[in-house]
Write a structure and sequence with these properties.
The complex is a heterodimer of chains A (117) and B (424).
Chain A lengths: L5 H22 L5 H28 L2 H26 L7 H20 L2
Helix pairs in contact in A: 1-2, 1-4, 2-3, 3-4
Chain B lengths: L1 H17 L15 E5 L5 E4 L5 E5 L4 E9 L6 E5 L9 E4 L3 E3 L14 E6 L5 E4 L8 E6 L4 E8 L6 E7 L2 E6 L5 E3 L8 E2 L4 E4 L7 E5 L4 E2 L2 E3 L6 E6 L2 E6 L4 E2 L2 H6 L4 E4 L4 E4 L8 E6 L4 E3 L2 E3 L6 E6 L2 E6 L11 E3 L3 H47 L8 H26 L5
Antiparallel strand pairs in B: 1-4, 1-7, 2-3, 2-6, 4-5, 5-6, 8-11, 8-14, 9-10, 11-12, 12-13, 15-18, 15-22, 16-17, 19-20, 20-21, 22-27, 23-26, 23-30, 24-25, 27-28, 28-29
Classes of the chains: A mainly alpha (117), B alpha+beta (424).
Chain lengths: 117, 424
């Protein structure tokens, strides 16, 4: 990986995450446009940090430290997104924290699947 | 229907974006280290985090690259690595000095048009590698000495050391020709070597242990080309085979005979002698070849070492000294194949000599002045640009990206609050 491309990688990560989570949200019958907008904004809130911070740990320390950082950030992301969904989403069919878990897991699984193709 | 269509369109867009090797949320880019070997035959220097030279790695050394970074100004790419015993000490090395050892993607393609008929010369044979670099695993298959086979030449990026792709007894892989272990050129027609003086041939391409002496003025037709770094040939003389340094033999140019071009030198210095051997202490056959005499070139020595050509004057064959050794460069002979070209080159040489003389007189003073000025400018620039340099390190790039990410996050947070603000 050429580090100079990191900004573009961050942008691509964000776009794909938003696309995947929107699709999954729609499939889960999140219909309200404002709710979908919140899904987009929440990913803008969390994704850049989740992508860039582990890279710093990767180059500064190593892969192991990078993975620890990533796990911690992802757990925090689940909680932060869950709190925002709980506060602002009109979609109540699924518990907001479980919704956050489903959306993040989907983007993770699909992302890993894509990377390994 | 609309929902299905929307989902389908979004999926297609997602698949298209995959072409750009995108990582999703949880798959934040993991910088995968990869193994690489030093492909610069002269070795490769590496530098510490301050940019100071920290050491040199030999050709073939395998290292693990952590990541690459490109200098925004010079566009030069460097790779960062660390040694196992210094886990958190990172060094940089030029990307041109290394070759990745990843599986299929980095195996250099060979050209089927660049084919050679090889002969294995090494006593121990040559072992086939899985890839065209020393860092690749060996296959365990050894091609024995004397084996003749077809090889396809290739050159690794950043290195001019050619490896040959070969197939032997069902095993395909790569062999390296360094150290004269492989010879080729058996089918080169009409090429001959001539010994300017009594010359030794050696057991190995390190030219240490002599196995035979070839007399002066011996024409050798049974020889093979070897790698450029060994600077020689593999010859066979009276049943004895060995390595002959190209600094001690002269070669002909077969294309001259087929194209019927004259290749003449003109004597432009008085008292040029014709020797029996390429040795100024040896027997003189003709004491003074007149200035202006045209001599035909039959064989010549490598101009990098000494300057002798084998020629003929008044039906007497012998050696003429071409270049005077020492601090002054003088042509005893002048290439006169094209009179105009010869005259032009003379004029150019005279200009160069005059320029050199002028430079010699003024160089020291001017250089000192220039260096002083440059140092002053550099110091002033450093003062002005301190803290605002465009040269960024890997850490700085990532920090900038992380700060950008934080900015986006804060903006998004504010946007969420504004979007979801309840209207009174």
């Amino acid at each position: 990986m050429i580090l100079n491309n990191l900004p573009f990688i961050m942008l691509k990560c964000l776009i794909l995450t938003i696309i995947i989570e929107l699709i999954v949200a729609i499939i889960l019958k999140v219909k309200d446009k404002k709710d979908l907008l919140n899904v987009v904004l929440v990913n803008c809130l969390t994704n850049p940090i989740v992508v860039s911070f582990p890279v710093y740990f990767n180059i500064k320390y190593g892969i192991f430290e990078r993975r620890i950082c990533l796990i911690i950030l992802e757990i925090l992301t689940l909680f932060v997104e869950g709190i925002i969904y709980k506060k602002y989403l009109s979609f109540k069919k699924i518990n907001p924290f479980i919704l956050s878990l489903i959306l993040n897991s989907s983007s993770y699984i699909i992302g890993e699947f894509i990377n390994n193709i | 229907m609309k929902k299905t269509l929307l989902i389908t369109v979004v999926c297609i867009l997602a698949i298209i974006s995959l072409q750009l090797a995108v990582f999703a949320d949880m798959g934040a880019p993991e910088i995968e280290p990869y193994k690489a070997s030093i492909s610069n035959v002269n070795g490769a220097k590496y530098y510490n985090s301050e940019g100071n030279e920290a050491g040199k790695l030999d050709y073939g050394t395998t290292i693990t690259i952590s990541y690459e970074i490109e200098n925004w100004e010079t566009k030069e790419r460097t790779a960062t690595f660390s040694f196992a015993e210094e886990q958190y000490e990172f060094y940089t090395i030029s990307i041109n000095d290394i070759t990745p050892l990843e599986d299929e993607a980095e195996k250099v393609k060979y050209s089927k048009e660049d084919k050679e008929e090889l002969i294995i010369l090494s006593e121990d044979g040559v072992e086939i590698s899985e890839g065209p670099a020393y860092g690749y695993e060996k296959t365990g298959v050894v091609i024995p000495k004397g084996e003749e086979l077809t090889g396809y030449r290739t050159e690794k990026m950043g290195s001019a050391v050619p490896w040959f792709f070969v197939t032997y007894e069902g095993t395909s892989g790569w062999v390296c020709e360094l150290n004269g272990v492989i010879g080729y050129g058996k089918d080169y027609e009409n090429q001959k070597l001539l010994t300017p003086r009594a010359t030794k041939i050696y057991k190995e391409a390190d030219y240490r242990k002599a196995v035979a002496v070839i007399p002066a003025n011996t024409i050798i037709t049974d020889f093979l080309e070897i790698d450029d770094w060994s600077q020689g040939y593999y010859v066979t003389y009276e049943g004895v085979s060995g390595y002959l340094s190209n600094g001690y033999c002269a070669v002909n140019f077969p294309w001259l005979e087929t194209e019927k071009k004259s290749f003449e030198y003109e004597v432009n210095y008085p008292e040029v002698k014709l020797y029996k051997e390429a040795n100024t202490n040896g027997e003189v056959l003709i004491d003074n070849i007149p200035v202006g005499t045209k001599l035909e070139y039959f064989y010549g020595e490598d101009i990098r070492f000494t300057g002798w050509i084998y020629t003929s004057y008044n039906n007497v064959n012998g050696w003429v000294y071409y270049i005077e050794d020492g601090s002054v460069y003088k042509d005893y002979l002048q290439y006169a194949n094209d009179a105009i070209l010869a005259q032009e080159s003379e004029e150019i040489e005279e200009d160069v000599i005059e320029e050199n003389e002028e430079v010699t007189e003024n160089t020291v003073t001017e250089r000192e002045n220039e260096e002083t000025v440059m140092n002053e400018v550099a110091t002033e620039e450093q003062k002005e640009n301190k803290g605002s340099s465009t040269m960024v390190s890997a850490t700085q790039i990532v920090i900038i990206c992380a700060m950008f990410g934080v900015t986006i996050a804060v903006t998004s947070f504010v946007t969420i609050a504004l979007v979801n603000r309840k209207k009174k």
